[in-house]
Design goal:
CATH topology: Beta-Lactamase
Helix content: 40-55%
Low-confidence stretches: none
CATH superfamily: GAF domain
Radius of gyration: 22 Å
Shape: elongated
Mean pLDDT: 92
Order of helices and strands: HHHHEEHHHEEEHEE
Structural class: alpha+beta
Number of helices: 8
């Protein structure tokens, strides 16, 4: 066997069982300090090393203390992702349902805010605490697509024994971060998860594309807000002598007079 990392993106669904077998061997050898038959993928190896440094037990449960209902609702109302849930849901829920998977949306701390999809898989997800209000950051649940995408700030697919915790070895997941186009702030994670048998190499590309659609919608909403601000501010600035400009709460310029325009100004946090 070649000593190269297993490329799960090139697997067909027919190869998923073989991949799971190999990944179990890699997981067992690596955590035991032995040389694995093939090295884990770089993103997985980096995550496993973080888990080992944290002293996380691979035999631990994935259970976490759920957010109280009032706190969950507060986070939902406060999340910008709530504004694009119809895009996330429309792009993923029907496909997830048909492929025996679920869509999960978390906040920037890895707390599950929403989940939708196949009813049977939703019930299975309850058994691993992949439910609303649960914590899925790496330090809570080990290597998983949600937590690792948060840590790496990049789309990640985690299959079978690539999960650090043994409880998740029968699962597969693909997740992508969603960033606020106004300031680059990480808003949260969109994820598709399901039993390992539901693995498909194209799932990550789908999740990434839907996350990008959500970001594009937020960008378009912001541009419309800038235009509305410009329509109000421009006539006012025309009556102001000297140099002046109007910016939104994120520092993006809507109107300017008497000076060279800039796209954005850094604003004090206050």
């Amino acid at each position: 066997m070649r000593n190269t990392a297993l490329d799960i993106s090139r697997l067909s669904t027919a190869d998923a069982a073989h991949a799971a077998h190999v990944l179990h061997q890699v997981h067992a050898a690596t955590l035991a300090g032995r040389r694995p038959p093939i090295p884990p993928r770089a993103v997985i190896d980096a995550s496993w090393q973080r888990m080992l440094r944290l002293g996380l037990d691979p035999d631990r449960s994935t259970s976490s203390v759920l957010l109280q209902r009032a706190e969950l609702e507060h986070r939902r109302r406060s999340s910008v992702l709530g504004e694009v849930m119809h895009t996330l849901s429309g792009g993923l829920t029907a496909i997830a349902d048909a492929s025996l998977q679920i869509m999960v949306v978390t906040d920037c701390q890895g707390r599950v805010l929403w989940r939708e999809g196949n009813a049977g898989v939703l019930r299975q997800a309850d058994t691993i605490c992949l439910e609303e209000g649960a914590a899925w950051s790496e330090d809570s649940t080990g290597t998983n697509a949600i937590g690792t995408a948060l840590a790496a700030r990049r789309p990640v697919q985690v299959h079978s024994a690539e999960h650090f915790v043994h409880t998740l070895h029968n699962w597969t997941c693909a997740a992508a971060p969603v960033q606020d186009p106004r300031d680059g702030r990480l808003l949260g994670i969109v994820d598709v998860s399901g039993p390992a048998s539901s693995f498909h190499p194209a799932t990550l590309a789908l999740v990434r594309s839907v996350a990008q659609l959500a970001e594009a919608e937020l960008r378009e909403r912001h541009l419309r807000q800038i235009e509305r601000l410009r329509s109000v501010a421009a006539p006012i600035l025309c009556r102001v002598g000297g140099r002046a400009l109007a910016v939104d709460v994120h520092g993006w310029t809507a109107a300017v007079i008497g000076m060279a325009p800039v796209d954005r100004l850094p604003l004090p946090k206050s």
